[in-house]
Amino acid sequence: MPDPLPLQSRWLGRVQYKEALALQESIVSDRILALKNNSPSSENRDVLLLLEHEPVYTMGRTPDQSSLRIQEELPHPVIRINRGGQATYHGPGQLIGYPILDLTPQGRDLHQYLRILEEIVIEVLLGYNITGQRLEGLTGVWVGKKKIASIGIGVRHWITMHGFALNVCGDLSPFQNITPCGIANLEMTSIEAESERAVSVKEVAEHLPALFFKHINLNPSGAHSI
């Protein structure tokens, strides 16, 4: 049966970071080519990849690498990528969302898109009786002064890649080896820690497609001039 929504959601399970990055880049390239060729709408659907990563640190495109601290002493590999932002950690127990969306229907507004991603995470948290919030001047979602979700995006021809990382459960200690998001003395938390009950990553992932459909002005037609 065809998906009734213009958003194609895929649960990938646990994936190596480089494998997921290659998949994102492939989908983005295919969409850009389809838009250039004015291909049928079926080839231009927005995609939401939902997954976990094996342990890895990632670093955004910034000359300031200090948030990695002493890279040689880190317990997991470091990968430099084309998103904004400083160092962060990805690993089991963290829900990763990679929306590959055409931002043209959103007005090509990156700041608005970041705020929408934050709002989606905040609504997910409400389902677990957790009050998530923004902090002025910063990107991501906090519970009090503890950070529960990080957001970093990349855009090519107004097609998005990268996205959000929501701490659901599991070990948060790898964050202590870096300065997460470049914020000194930042404490991380998770849905499991805040709700004090067992929660699985896949369970949380099931809430995401409907929330994206609610908040994102999805464009199934692919009508976009690049």
Sum up the overall morphology in one term.
globular
CATH secondary-structure class: Alpha Beta
Helix content: 10-25%
> Could you give the count of β-strands?
10
Low-confidence stretches: 1-5, 219-226
Q: What do the pLDDT scores average to?
A: 88
Radius of gyration: 17 Å
- Ends distance: 32 Å
The name CATH uses for the topology is: BirA Bifunctional Protein, domain 2
What is the SS-derived class?
alpha/beta
Largest sheet: 7 strands, mixed
Identify the notable features of this structure and list them briefly.
226 residues, alpha/beta, BirA Bifunctional Protein, domain 2, seven-stranded mixed beta sheet, globular, disordered C terminus
Characterization of this structure:
The structure is a single chain. Strand 7 and strand 8 form a beta hairpin. This protein has 226 residues and is α/β, with parallel strands linked by helices. Mean pLDDT is 88; it is low at 1-5 and 219-226. It is globular and about 50 Å long. It has helices at 17-36, 110-126, 191-195, 201-205, 208-215, and strands at residues 7-15, 46-53, 56-59, 78-80, 88-90, 94-100, 141-143, 146-156, 159-167, 187-188. Helix 2 (110-126) crosses helix 5. Helix content is 24%, strand content 26%.
